[in-house]
Amino acid sequence: MLKCHQYTPDIVLDNGIHVEIKGKFTGEMRTKMIAVKKCNPDIDIRFLFQRDGWCTKNHKMRYSEWCEKNGFDYAIGEVIPSEWID
Q1: Within its chain, how far is the Cα of 54 from the centroid?
Q2: 80 neighbors 14 (Cβ within 8 angstroms)
């Protein structure tokens, strides 16, 4: 059974895109964001990562690979990409 989580985005752009800004992206956060996406399929949720870190200690998946696997757009860096804003 799917558990829907309460969700407050870090930033909502004027065009409706929800941006999550992450340094460390824990397993608990990843699980929550999958549930949020399933409960809110019409929301465009994207991630801005400070760096493309590893999801696991054994270095088998990076944050970017997790996003691609789970259907999230993402960017790496300190600034929201201009194409997300326009």
Answers
A1: 14
A2: no
